Structure formats: structure tokens, C-alpha cells
Give the backbone structure.
Amino acid sequence: MSLAATAIDEPAPREKVISTMISYLHTDGALVREEAGSALSARQAEVFAPVVAWAEELARTKFVPSDSVRGAPQSEEAVAAIREHLSSLDRWHLAAASQLAGAAKSVLLALATLDGAVTTKQALVAARLEEDAQASEWGVVEGGHDIDAAGVAVAVSAPAVFARLARGGVVG
């Protein structure tokens, strides 16, 4: 319901939503990796490979991964292509993309999920990758990690389902 209300009411101007999403592209979770050579870095490269491949096909240019928390500047072509893609979304899909990007910490993952390049299950794995790696190394904190995982599952799944409904003509 909140996604539908957001799409209908558009509490933030459309261009502001798009600009905000674009501002996170340089530190996108699909592109910022653990230092090369670590097991987590290898897993990130594997899990995010279909997302990056989808984005590179869409943009017809390469995206630059980084092991810095500051990310890496992406090319003007890459930024323009993602901006154009976001601008092409209807209000329903833009609301879903915005929520999913926030939950997954990745604009690219959100768009690839909504486009069907990755499944919702793959998006959930990607969205929780670092947290799950930490939990496997240090242990799960009951009442913490499990609750966070459930919250992310809802925050990732809901926009994906909402977008499928909107695509099928049930919404809007």
C-alpha cells in the first residue's frame, strides 16, 4: 500500500527522486567490493556479475568496480544511461525502484531486479551478502541479524512484486 501511495502522491518531485538515485551510482553496492583477493570480494564479483552485465548492456559501456568505500567515478555515458532508464520508468516502477534501491543499497540491483535480469531471490542474496558473510564468520545475533534479514526480505520483495503487478496491468 505504501508503494502505491508513494506512486500516486509523488511526495518528492520525480526529478529529485531520479537525481538522488543517480547520486548513489558511484558508490553502488553492486560496484563497491571488499579488497581484492578476499573470499568476500570473490563472492561479491560472482553474485553481482549478472547485475553488472545487465547494466553494461543497458548503458553500452563499462561500470567501474572499486574496493574503496568512496566508490569509483562512473563514466558520463554510464550515468546518462541509468538516468535515461530511470526517466523512462512510469510512476509505479520508479517508486518500486527507489524503495528497492534503498533496501538493497544498489540502484543497479534494483533496476536489474525490476527488469527481470535477476530474480527476487538473487536480489535478496545480493542485498544481504556482506551481513550474511559477517554472520557466518562471527555468528548470528538473535533478535538482530534475523530481524534485519526479515526486514530486508520484505523491503526487497515488496517492490519486486509491486512492479510485476504494475507491468501486468493490475496497478495503474
User: Anything to note?
Assistant: The chain has one domain: 2-167.
